[in-house]
Write a structure and sequence with these properties.
Elements: E1 16-20, H1 25-36, E2 40-45, H2 48-56, E3 61-66, H3 72-81, E4 86-91, H4 109-125, E5 129-136, H5 159-184, E6 189-193, H6 201-205, H7 209-215, H8 222-225, H9 227-234, E7 243-246, E8 256-259, H10 268-282
Parallel strand pairs: 1-2, 1-4, 2-3, 4-5, 5-6, 6-7
Antiparallel strand pairs: 7-8
The structure holds NADP nicotinamide-adenine-dinucleotide phosphate (NAP).
Length: about 300
Amino acid sequence: MTGWTAADLPDQHGRTVVVTGATSGLGVEAARALAGAGATVIMACRDLDKGRAVAAGIDGATELRRLDLADLSSVRAFATGLDRDVDVLINNAGVMAVPHDTTADGFERHLGVNHLAPFALTGLLVNRVRDRVVTVSSGLHVLGRVHDDLDWERRRYQRWLAYAQSKLANLLFAYELQRRLAAAGRRTVSVAAHPGVSATEGQRRDTSLQGKILAGGPAQRPEMGVLPILYAAAAPDVRGGVCIGPDGFLQRRGHPKVVGTIGRSRDAVRAAWLWERSEELTGVHYVIEPTGVVP
Ligand SMILES: NC(=O)c1ccc[n+]([C@@H]2O[C@H](COP(=O)([O-])OP(=O)(O)OC[C@H]3O[C@@H](n4cnc5c(N)ncnc54)[C@H](OP(=O)(O)O)[C@@H]3O)[C@@H](O)[C@H]2O)c1
């Protein structure tokens, strides 16, 4: 698969893909490439005006829907309002190393936007996604620990560690979801992806020395960074339960391939703990139907 580019995307006509955070960076590139290959892309955005402007520049079928991941009532409204089953759900939207802040439901923002909301969204849609759920993590998951104090109530807040915890949570979630889909007899697969280091708003916004050190060198263009996400979403040979990332040095840049993730991301006991906690915190309890029962 080395050397794979967006030009290698299989024909996407007849497929519907939800992309969260399709107003900036990698989400825009994912929407553009998938719509360009023939998919109908449902752009799930918190800012509809911004979404409209992005959609106007995309050649292909797009639809805009409102989704604010910092508010679980918006997640529920999005899921209720979705008028059809979809082939792929790409959990891409995220915040990166932001100062301490809380979501509408009172969760620390990285936890709420990057993990709990995608967990809830996926749970509400799980029986309506035919092919794949792609969850976008980060190489910085290696700095993460999923702490008993998940919501940063009893420890000093550190924004990069809060980001890293949420990105490790993305992997624990993606791998646990795959185990649960398989156990339920559902053909839908769960795949993780990470873009290496890509020049997007999220990346540029952080001008701190710490951010520069963690980026570890120049960022690749978002058109390159998006390739692992596209591969995870559409390449025919992708198995559930893997992570797709760049094939270059330290997974920072390059073309998509299956990459390793830190041992902690494969900890099934911690993943089950996080799952239970996420169900409690979001109120979304997964009921996964086997493929074939779903209309
Ligand atoms: N760029 C990198 O080097 C890099 C590296 C590793 C992982 N990632 C991951 O890649 C994903 C995309 O990041 P990016 O680099 O493309 O960043 P970005 O340019 O900042 O885009 C982030 C997207 O998420 C959306 N978003 C933020 N908060 C939201 C909320 N409450 N509800 C709904 N949408 C929300 C943003 O919407 P607005 O436009 O309204 O702000 C935007 O569309 C993230 O999951 C990030 O962790 C990126």
